[in-house]
Design a protein that fits this description.
homotetramer; about 350 residues; alpha/beta; nine-stranded mixed beta sheet; 12 helices; about 15% strand; elongated
Amino acid sequence: MGEIDLSKYQTRTDLVVDLINDDFKLENRRSYKGITISNISLDEENAKKLNKSVGDYTTIYFDDITDNTNYYNVLRILTLEMRKMLKNSNILDNYSCMIIGLGNEKSTADSLGVITAKKVIVTKHIYDLTGSLEKGYRITTCLIPGVMGTTGIETSDIISSVVNKTKPDFIIVIDALASGSVDRLLKTIQITNTGINPGSGIGNNRKEISENIFKVPVIAIGVPTVVEATTIVNDTLNYMKKLFSYSIKNKSKTIDKLIPSNHINYLKNNNYTLSKEESSYFLGVLGNLTDNEKKILIKDVLTPIGYNLVVTTKEIDFITLKLTNLIAEAINKSIHNISTKNI
Amino acid sequence: MGEIDLSKYQTRTDLVVDLINDDFKLENRRSYKGITISNISLDEENAKKLNKSVGDYTTIYFDDITDNTNYYNVLRILTLEMRKMLKNSNILDNYSCMIIGLGNEKSTADSLGVITAKKVIVTKHIYDLTGSLEKGYRITTCLIPGVMGTTGIETSDIISSVVNKTKPDFIIVIDALASGSVDRLLKTIQITNTGINPGSGIGNNRKEISENIFKVPVIAIGVPTVVEATTIVNDTLNYMKKLFSYSIKNKSKTIDKLIPSNHINYLKNNNYTLSKEESSYFLGVLGNLTDNEKKILIKDVLTPIGYNLVVTTKEIDFITLKLTNLIAEAINKSIHNISTKNI
Amino acid sequence: MGEIDLSKYQTRTDLVVDLINDDFKLENRRSYKGITISNISLDEENAKKLNKSVGDYTTIYFDDITDNTNYYNVLRILTLEMRKMLKNSNILDNYSCMIIGLGNEKSTADSLGVITAKKVIVTKHIYDLTGSLEKGYRITTCLIPGVMGTTGIETSDIISSVVNKTKPDFIIVIDALASGSVDRLLKTIQITNTGINPGSGIGNNRKEISENIFKVPVIAIGVPTVVEATTIVNDTLNYMKKLFSYSIKNKSKTIDKLIPSNHINYLKNNNYTLSKEESSYFLGVLGNLTDNEKKILIKDVLTPIGYNLVVTTKEIDFITLKLTNLIAEAINKSIHNISTKNI
Amino acid sequence: MGEIDLSKYQTRTDLVVDLINDDFKLENRRSYKGITISNISLDEENAKKLNKSVGDYTTIYFDDITDNTNYYNVLRILTLEMRKMLKNSNILDNYSCMIIGLGNEKSTADSLGVITAKKVIVTKHIYDLTGSLEKGYRITTCLIPGVMGTTGIETSDIISSVVNKTKPDFIIVIDALASGSVDRLLKTIQITNTGINPGSGIGNNRKEISENIFKVPVIAIGVPTVVEATTIVNDTLNYMKKLFSYSIKNKSKTIDKLIPSNHINYLKNNNYTLSKEESSYFLGVLGNLTDNEKKILIKDVLTPIGYNLVVTTKEIDFITLKLTNLIAEAINKSIHNISTKNI
């Protein structure tokens, strides 16, 4: 094993929640009807530790968005959390807004930002024409800059030139993200006032889109739509340890033997861990590597043969359709002061 | 009739050829395998007369683009004429190019510019990354600014800000146009180095996109995709006169009576005109109105009841598919110095 | 004029209302919030006269379907009329239904049937799996047979073979139609229990899809999406006569001279007709042709030169999107006994 | 470990090559410009062993289909292998063909069959109309039956009813498949004259589509577009063993230490295996499980927590576009005797 370089492996993730430990003091986590809401505020010290930007991060976890009731519960929560984020970022009711949809519509896994942006309400052209808007509406524009592979232009150059020309008071940018764990794939929405940072998104070379650059608040909304094969394998090995632990601890319980293994959800119980010896017995040297070491090893296995695929689930088309409706509606309801009967 | 205001009616057309008389001295017109090529150069005097901009206009007419042989003939001619236009506009081989696709992809009749732009080759991102391009390729970018109804932003503002930022040496802009006569609908391509002028395009409020504004040459490529109901009616009344004239002149020719009327192409013969009395007999007062007066009358009939529809043919989806392939390929072959075996 | 054959011209229309005179005794016509509903029942005698099938025809006219309030009013009326049609056709609550979407999705003007069918609720697979359905739901299937140009198979052969295999108790078939007058284009929905008849639809060669063939009730829902150039010209000439009549009758009214002509809606007033002499004066021989003769003449003018285009409005993409939502929702609400809060 | 049921695990794969050992005597395997072609003929005995149908299986492996040269090499090979398959299946030049595209166009991973079918040439309607076809063309139809979730009808019922009505002499069916190993994902085309068998395809409940059912030859063309998470994890553990073995065997070679591990392709060398003791050392109990046992274990870990995802790569949209062009062109060139300059 000595031949393998175990220097720091950078997990590919755009979610802050992937980086903090569950008992991290900064996280305020609560649940509502099976939906979990996490609020994290990173000060300079903590931001540096996590290699993230200073600011607020809200993360909403949910299960099946194709269920109607659940859809409306998530919509309600997202709208409320968006409003809080706008308020915390000192965005006033009369501030004009530019909504930016990042990504490539032709690639399902990278299309979420563009499709969402196509569904938001824009109003600036009406304001420019008539000099006023219906009560409750904010001056809003929408920009879909495309991707460098089809425009030949650095995306941030398109954005900065249009922002400088039209001078919105704040920006909302929507993008597809990479997930650092299997269980968040298409089941998480992250909102942050830190904008989009270098290397974010599922495309490789995103440049920073943030208040630093544009001098106006930038709220970023992201959903993880892809995960690396390395992550799937590492997660599975960790789940495997939990199942081994569960099996050992429940060996003698007759009742448990009657439950088919595919009905046991061992995941929720944090007590299922293995001793060093147990890990060695079940998984050899592999069993006692740190998470970081395991990921480096798996990446070292998959990369040279070209199989560290970035993957997504087969259902992505249907879920993206629902998610883009949901996020667009939440944006409309949080930036404009309009009919909120469902909220 | 006196009640109807017969002041100058502005035919809705973006084609210069709709405005000049067939014997106009400025037009250089030739044919090749059933395809007609017209070159017009407007100096200040003539431009003023026609209310058009000073510059070169090349118009290519063709019939069925869905026929493969015809497709390649039109492609060949369009490529050659594009190259001439670039040369006449003093565009050098090392000039960088921005291709702009105007219009709304969601509206078939307005989608031609956007769909074409999505099919062109872009290279600037490769040049920026590697510092060079394969031999024959020009630095090229592509911009699809969208329409005001979905962006909330004046389209020319998006274009000018990105042009100012990326500083291309010349611009090619592609747009769907309105036709001033039924017979040009989806059967004409106009190239001009005067750019896009106010009121052009099938959207209502296009602003100028031209060398005046951007200080670099702007080549505009347009195809008429729509026509006003007024134009259809006026054209039909004129065809009717020709048919009446034909009928009178061929009354006694036995041979002609044997030809079913739906096989007579009376249109090509310019000798078929009616005398003032004949016009009165067949069409009453209507028969002796000028073209301009007839159009005003028809518009006056259709507008108050909301039926001066802007229409397009049922086949537009299939023809647009072919035309966008053809124009994109002609652009690629004329701006880059690449494989031209078909040319 | 004698040279032109004035034998019976067959107006291209699929709407029964285009064929009957406004004072026709069989029509029951009423209005609700600007929407007109016409019910016609043709017995054998009247059906023969109009060259149509024996049965019930309901026609709903409306204006701007993109207006939200109007959308819901039309939806409400369509749902109620659909329910009446099902009841009149003796379709019981436990009858199974097959919904068939005709046309070609790739051609906007011909896509209405296919797009609508993709939006209806199907249930048979759930019934087959579980042996029951949620209360209120009917056993429903959906078939999109495609068009002969892309399947190579006669569409009615695909339908009949699947109908014979799956044996639905009744059929709903949705199709785009040709309009016999400009004012009905995309502003009319026709429902009939006579099914689809030869020559219907905007494709040329539709075969009969009716109870005669399938031995179960066939409800056809159609929307006119195209109109022939001939129709536009003929309609305009008729409107022209009305405007001439209006102008004559209001010559001396000072008040009227103050109203700009584009604000006069002369169309609604049926009193505006011209005498034979007035017609001759304004429109010559053309002015005193019957409608039928005029149409033959116009067709004779346009056909040999290839300009009798079948056209549609520039806005078809947006209106089709709305109409397919509306019709699909009305079908779901009328065949299933589900949430009808909007009804 | 005893608690985990290690009874036979059924790998989810539709590829025969996933089931045979590399040294299997029935396989005829050769390579051409980096493309591998495998021909397998299963007699009754071998078919039973593998739980597959009696017949011929041709499998083509390739790498980057987005490379133009490679695209044409694969096209050439696929066309030639298709022609061999037609010949081996005794399909004569005058046999009529029905092409069936299975799957759901709305789900990228399941859309390959439908999109391919939309690109094939159909001719039967021309033959029916004119009584003949251009030289070289076969009577061909195309059917896209949809999926049960949107039709409510068992797909095989739609197919059988249309087949019985139109009576093609043979059938070509195209479908997206599940892969039994990561390295075949979107890089393999399987052709077989055994048709589609129960449980095939990426949808769950496909019924048999074969000569047994339809009494005419059925050629199935499939491409694996998805893979289970279980497969990714199991493949990775096997690759890991190879890398461990490689590392041990090359420990002392100085030259090797200079090669970064991400440039070593250890996969191609079949000599890299671990002893029982080495496996235990590196991977514990897990290291000495059989492939089958490992898969059961992984599935047992992932299934109860809902993470045995069926996944696909992020690039699927672009590769599917290329593959559907390639397969449609190969079908056109192999069933019709038309221009084959590229072959």
